[in-house]
Amino acid sequence: MEQIHIDKRKLLLISGCAAIVVVATTLGLYFGLKDRKNEVSDEAPILTGAAVTSNGVECAEIGTNILMLNGSAVDAAIAVLFCEGVTCPQSAGIGGGFFATIYDRSTGTVQTLDARETAPAAATKNMFVNNGNAAVEGGLAVAVPGEIKGYWVMHQKYGKLDWKTLIQPTINLCREGHLVSGYLDRIIKPRQAKILSIPSLREILINPETNQTWREGDRIKRLALADSLEIIANEGANALYSRNGTLLPKLMRDLKLFGSILTEEDFYNYE
Predict the structure, then answer these.
(1) Which residues of the sequence carry a binding annotation for L-glutamate (predicted)?
(2) Following DSSP, what letter does each residue of the chain receive, concatenated?
(3) pLDDT at 16
(4) Is 116 annotated as a binding residue?
(5) pTM of the model
């Protein structure tokens, strides 16, 4: 079977059928910010400062706390990206994928990781002919997500802290509620009519008291997603990519409701 990569994916958030468009998320970890008195010299100084930047209101603090626990830069990146998937669902999410570039100072080498989505085995190169919208919306647009598998692979090689430690802050955030940023407000407000027409999106992005999209400063709880993240925290990548994983059967039931052609084998074979 010819493998086909599709650029635009609309995937189901494992929290329960929430469709999201997954795009690349940029995360910067900048080291050596404290001491600006050091001048450039042939012998680079050793600096101790660190900073984490993110889009989500709470995510930078989560990443900083991971560094304070003596976590690696990769640990912090994973923790921040789990958070970004909740606070910026239009930009990231555990149903998507990513590219990563990692500099290993101990060896002076750069590693890259391709954890992007892949087309299901049943996909054909003509499946969207005369039906271009199906490549963006609906079950046929759903691809095999690589995000959790990619995080797991990075953590196995570069992580220092326990896997669950990286996810627990976002689980807590889902249960307590995350703040709606101005950025998220500007994204979802113009799409209110579309969101209202899709039950799975309406459940998450519409304030039941106003019947409008959540506004900047509001707080959204994601209890179903918290439950899914608990499973991922306990089972690791096996939750989705193993025959023993307990999350995949639940996801497959949701996918079939949307007319997806994904199968369990697509997840087992993802590399």
Answers:
(1) 116
(2) ------S--EEEETTTTEEEE------EEEE--S---PPP-SSPPP---EEEE-SSTTHHHHHHHHHHTT--HHHHHHHHHHHHHHH-TTT--TTS-EEEEEEETTTTEEEEEEE--B--TT--TTTTTT-GGGGTSSGGG--B--HHHHHHHHHHHH--S-HHHHHHHHHHHHHH-EEPPHHHHHHHGGGHHHHHHSHHHHHHHEETTTTEE--TT-EE--HHHHHHHHHHHHHTTHHHHSTT-SSHHHHHHHHHHTT----HHHHHT--
(3) 33
(4) yes
(5) 0.81
